[in-house]
Structure formats: C-alpha cells, structure tokens
Write a structure and sequence with these properties.
The protein has about 425 residues and is α+β, with helices and mostly antiparallel strands. The chain is built from eight helices and four strands; from the N terminus they run H-H-H-E-E-H-H-H-E-E-H-H. Helix 4 packs antiparallel against helix 8 (about 380-415).
C-alpha cells in the first residue's frame, strides 16, 4: 500500500507539473480585452466603419431612402410652381351648318389649370423641408440599426470564439492527463480506475469542444453573411456615451414624421376650398360676311363655398397627426425605459464579473489544495479532476463575464442612440 502511494504521488507530480503550465496560460488569456483565435485574427482586419457601411448597404430599409429623396424633390417642385394641379387641353369648335346659312365657324384651343390658394404653396414648400429633415433622420436611424446589428454580431462571435479557445485548451489538458495516466497504469503504478476517470474527462472535454466549435461556426457564418468578412475589426472597444432623448435617431425620425403630418393637416385645411381655375387660349371666327378674326381668351373661375367632402379629409388627416403624436410619445417612454434597463444590466454585469473573478481565485486555491491532497494520498484523482474542471469552467466564466460587461456598455450606447464610427 505504501509503495502504491509513492508511485501514485510520482504520477501526481507529473500531473501537477502539466497543470501548472496550463493554468497560467489560461489565466493570462483572461486579462486581455478580447480573445481572438487564429481563424479571425488577420493583419487585414476591416475597421468598424467599413463594416457599418457594408451593413448599411444590405439593410432592406435602405430602399426607402431613394423614394424619400424623390418625394422631397417632387414636393419642392410642386411648391415652387404656380400651377396647382394638372393642365387640361381644351379644344372647342362651333359652326351653324345645321342651324343657319351664315357660314359661321369658330375654333378655340387653350389650356386650363388650377392656381394655388393663399397658403397652399408655402405649405407645400414647408412640407418639402420636412421631408428633407426626415431624410436626414432616416439616415441616422439606418446607421443606428446597422450599428445595433454589428454590435450583436461582434459580441456573439467574440464570446463563441472565447468559449472555443478555452474548450480547446481544456481538451488538450484532458488528453495530456489521459496519456500520462495510461502510461502509469500500463506500468502498474496507478489503478485502472484512474485511467477510466481520465478517459471520461477527456471525452467530456471533447464533447464540449465540439459544441463550442459548432456554436463558433454558426456565429462566424452569421457574421460573414452580414458583414462580408470573416475577420473581426482589429480594435473594438466602447466607453459609455450619452445623448439627450431628443437627439436619439428614433425620436428625431418620429418627430420628423409628426411635423410632416402636422404640415399635411395645414395643407388639407387650406385645400377645403377648390382651387381657382385659369383658362388661356386663342379663338378664331369666320363667316360669309366676315374674314378670319383671331383673338386671345383668358378666363378665371372661383368656386363658391367649401367642398363638403373636405371635412372628411381634414378629420382623417387630423387622425393621422394624432397617431404620429401617440407614436412619438410611446417611443419616448420606451426608450427611457430601455435606457434605465441598460444601465441596470451594466451594473449587474460588472457585479457578475467581480463575482466570477472571486470564483476563479477560489477555484485556483481549490486546485492547489486538491493537488497537495492527491500528492499525499489523502484524496482520489476524481476530486483532483473535478477541481481542475471547475477551474477551467471558472476561467471561461470569468472571460465571458468580461465580454458581457463590454457588451453591456455597447447595449447602453445603443439605447442612447450612439452609432458606431
């Protein structure tokens, strides 16, 4: 029994030497800002702005930008024009061939078109200005949407990469331990049960590495599909930034919509009366007694009263404006709540990181005690394996908690309306 204990302690000494080299390496990898494996580390890594621009080009909402540009220009053109609507071509012919014998004939050709009522043209120009403001707000909103997607993709890939890195190291150490224990068992220095436990630990580490590899590949595929690159940006870190609620891109966008609906209501009210109609043309008369006589014709008509159907249009547009007001108020409430929640999650993430660091310290001490006890034959290899596995898990948890804290800062900036640059 004493001989077996001495031989087992020799195995423990070799095992401890192996773990002593493994633990510092894994510990040091938790001190950096991010873990980037060789599969995504490259000197040609794109910068953040390039990734944002690529994402902007892929957003389906981008198609609205050109349509909004056309709408702005057409509304401006209408406001600067003195014609308020469509131009009608008028052709008129008169003769007395069926009612008399004077040989009278008359030809008239002209154009009729509506004119702006007071206030309508100015309302159109103001509406065009509001559409232009909406264009700018839409551009900022799209950039924030692209930033949100990029933040999510980057942190998903970073955490998947960190998990895979640690799972690989865990598996490598488990395989090294299995190989060492197998040699000792074959030499008759360790019981076969030690080998079975080491093999189980190795298989479990391989399973966890396989799962991590799959999750990493899924994250990488998603990242590459959206960004057009398989490389993470060379540098990606954020600090807390704040914007006034009114400067949030979503709020600015909804405020522009509100202004547009308000201006549309003014224009609808101005249009309760039908527009005056101007007619300009030429008329040529002739008969047996007279020669051809050509004259210019100008005519203007003013509708009397108010179109009774216009009240319906005013009511409908007023409802649209109220809906815009409600949407803006709800957005302000929701964004305020989101900001508070993001602040809370950031504080929680920071606290979790501190707890994870404490757990890592305790795990390191536990492994040291387990090693010592195993050397002295006071415990089994199972206890040492469990303590070592717990150390690996806590190292990974600490790294993930660091990344979660950094992601919480990104989420905080997102709720503030801060886009990536």
């Amino acid at each position: 029994m004493k001989k077996q204990l001495i031989l087992t302690s020799v195995c423990a000494t070799a095992l401890i030497s192996s773990l002593a080299h493994a633990a510092p390496n894994m510990q040091s990898s938790t001190t950096g800002n991010s873990v980037v494996s060789s599969s995504i580390n490259s000197t040609s890594s794109p910068n953040v702005q390039q990734l944002v621009d690529h994402l902007l080009a892929t957003l389906p909402e981008r198609e609205k930008s050109q349509a909004l540009t056309d709408l702005t220009q057409s509304t401006s053109n209408a406001g600067h024009s003195w014609i308020a609507g469509d131009v009608d071509l008028v052709v008129k012919h008169e003769n007395d061939s069926m009612t008399g014998n004077q040989g009278y004939q008359s030809w008239e050709v002209g154009a009729a078109f509506p004119l702006w009522l007071p206030g309508q043209s100015d309302a159109k120009l103001q509406l065009s200005s509001n559409y232009h403001s909406l264009q700018n707000a839409q551009a900022s909103r799209l950039k924030l949407m692209a930033s949100n997607k990029l933040r999510s993709l980057i942190w998903q890939l970073k955490k998947a990469d960190a998990t895979l890195t640690y799972r690989k190291k865990n598996h490598d150490q488990a395989v090294a331990l299995e190989r060492l224990v197998k040699q000792r068992v074959e030499a008759g220095e360790n019981p076969r049960m030690d080998l079975l436990m080491a093999q189980q630990a190795s298989l479990n580490a391989m399973k966890l590495q396989t799962i991590a590899q799959q999750n990493y590949q899924i994250a990488l595929n998603s990242y590459a599909t959206w960004t057009g690159s398989k490389q993470l940006p060379a540098q990606f870190s954020e600090t807390k930034q704040s914007l006034p609620l009114e400067e949030h891109p979503d709020i600015a966008f909804l405020q522009s919509l509100q202004s547009i609906e308000s201006e549309k209501l003014k224009l609808t009210k101005f249009s309760q009366k039908q527009n005056p109609n101007l007619y300009l043309g030429t008329k040529t008369d002739k008969s047996h007694q007279t020669s051809n006589n050509t004259m210019l014709v100008a005519q203007i008509s003013f509708p009397l009263g108010i179109n009774k159907q216009s009240a319906v249009a005013v009511s409908e547009q007023n409802q649209n404006m109220i809906n815009a007001d409600i949407a803006l108020a709800k957005a302000k409430q929701q964004i305020s709540i989101n900001r508070q929640n993001a602040e809370t999650r950031l504080v929680q993430a920071q606290q979790t990181e501190k707890l994870a660091k404490t757990q890592l310290t305790l795990s390191t001490e536990s492994v040291a005690l387990a090693k010592q006890a195993y050397q002295q034959g006071e415990t089994s290899i199972q206890i040492l394996l469990q303590a070592t596995q717990q150390l690996y898990d806590n190292q990974l948890n600490f790294k993930i908690s660091q990344l979660n804290t950094q992601q919480s800062i990104s989420d905080y900036n997102q709720t503030q309306g801060v886009s990536l640059k």
